[in-house]
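Database export, one record per block. Field names are fixed; values are copied verbatim from the stored entry.
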Amino acid sequence: MSYKKIDLLVNGKEQVVELNKVAKQANSAVLFREGDTVILSTLVYNKDELIEEDFTPLVVQYIEKAYAMGKIPAGFVKREAKPGDFETLTSRLIDRSIRPLFPKGYAYNTVVDTIVFSANEESDLQTAAMNATSLCLYLSDLPIDKVVYGVRLTKIDDKIVVNPTLSELKSGAFDMYVSGTQDELLMIEFKAQGQEEIQILEVPEIDITEPMMAEEPVTIYHTNELSEDDFIECLLKAQEAIKSATTVYKEAFEPLKKEPIELKLRDLKEDKELENYIRDHYFEEIQEAISHLAKSERASILHDIAKKITNELDKDYDFVYNAVNSIKKDLVRSSILDKGIRADGRGLTDIRNITIDTNILPSAHGSCLFTRGQTQALAVATLGGEMDAQMYSNLTDKADKLDKFILHYNFPPFSVGEADRVGPPSRRELGHGNLAKRAIECLIDPEFEDTVRVVSEVLESNGSSSMATVCGGSLALTAAKVPLRKLAAGVAMGLVTEDERYAILTDIMGLEDHDGDMDFKVTGTYDGITALQMDIKLGGVKINVLKEALEQAKEGRCYILELMEKAKEEIVYNDKVLPHTINFKVLPDKIVDIIGQGGKVIKDIISKFGVNIDLDRKTGNVKVTGGNKEVVENAKTHIISIVNVPGREIPKVEVGSVVKGKVKRVANFGAFVEISDGVEGLLHISKLSDKRVNRVEDIVNVGDEVEVKILDQKGFKIGLGLVKVIK
């Protein structure tokens, strides 16, 4: 194909797509431009080798280049290093949107690289990267005939805004990202964004002669949870934008699509006759295996059954195990659809047994062990000062930023019974931690200025450990006395469908996640949704089903919140280890006295009392944080003693008068002359003579008596001019 340049107008935004211009040795390459954003997306697959493992061998890499914003990478080594959190999360977001498009049994090792070459501070790089990748995939010679479009929405002044700029998004009430094809939704990411609003309240003033109303500004904080009905309204708006965009893409690029190759798919190793035999002879054993809830135990039993059948029939083990697994899946799904009974005996809306233990770690600031069925998360909150905040800078940021709310999620292999070493955080761990953070962040009181870190240690997992993190994290923060406007709870939902029949499941376990058709996590308060993540495994989901799932999730969430509220009332605080903070004000010009020359004074205070001190030069606010109340109070008393030292009175001198004095000190710029007890003036080198003076010592030296004229006075600063040196 020769070079092609296509100009598009997509949902009000101009886009330019260039084909066969760069990276021509890749199987597919798209140079995508939207305003100042320029992104290259490439796709390469190895058609000479089939991957035998049972998964889609797809790797998606989203890569940012510092030069795209006229920056040089920070750090000692001045080149791009390992991907940052934003790059990792964006890679994951794209992966989850395009992976469902690959046919079952696809086994070619495939790599998608999406690289940002140019951007500006208003660029929404996630949506641009998603759409560039989608076109690259669609225009390849893989048999994929659907275009994916990513759209972002927010609400400003009660109006839904489609594809806002980053500054608009920042001022919006929420951040909703949706990807889908022309007829199907594939993925949803949502977070509420807390906002401060200044309202003018009229306050009545008592006046005998004439009653008046005074106006008083009041700051009101909105946590901005979204109701289920409003969520569906936004989703319909997103669906409309996706349909419009994919229609434009289809019309423009369908004639340019390469002839699809004939794929050789992985042998799925299915044998229907074998499956029927096993169903007739081993049905009860497989059914018994399903009742074992732990993933590791259930898998072990199913493997044992498959080995026994393999030995009995002298069949290929993989065929036998796949047949056993297929029967297990059918059993799980049919029981749900036909009887409304799940593998563990629960009804569709039942939530597993929940226990909550708060502050079980005596030396931690706040902790909560949240257990739901066989899922258990230990959430631990730690308070710190401004120096403990996480510094970060995304590509589109002009300057570094401080993140004062940090949430880390750890998923060690032992939590699912796997014998493996604990390694660095995976994409999944970063994604789950990000979801939990989004669920809680908007609920923290904006007046709380301390840095706080929550770590969730998943100790046992059988479904929805990220939701356990939200529940445990909310209570750990509360146990550390972090002011939350409301508690947040989370629940994972599932969906099982067959033709027109469907069943929505509340609080799914790992088995239902694996064998179901939808993974749907909802977090929020009694008042609405704070965060949501949805991945569709089948060909989309109808809006009416999604609405029903949201309402069912709300019921489950409220039930969990009731248990959390009871646990909150029973918290025994770790007052002995909780840091104590005092805020007080001094005159802004006294801040320099607290700091001292070269920071000597403040370093001495920190060392002596073992406290952290944050100073605001503009307002004069002093914030002292320490291990307990006593040391903080002592540090405050010491600081006040520094700033309340009686100051010298400004000396009174008569400008223009001539006085006698003595040279006390000499510097390269002039001499300091004592003109009365304790009062000095500066005799600048330029005031020593009418002619140029190279060295002060050529005219005056320490100890010389001089006659000087007082030229000016600015507070304590007195300017002098030399009249004569007294010999």
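Remark 1: The two ends are 97 Å apart (CA to CA).
Remark 2: Residues 206-212 have pLDDT under 50 and may be disordered.
End of record.
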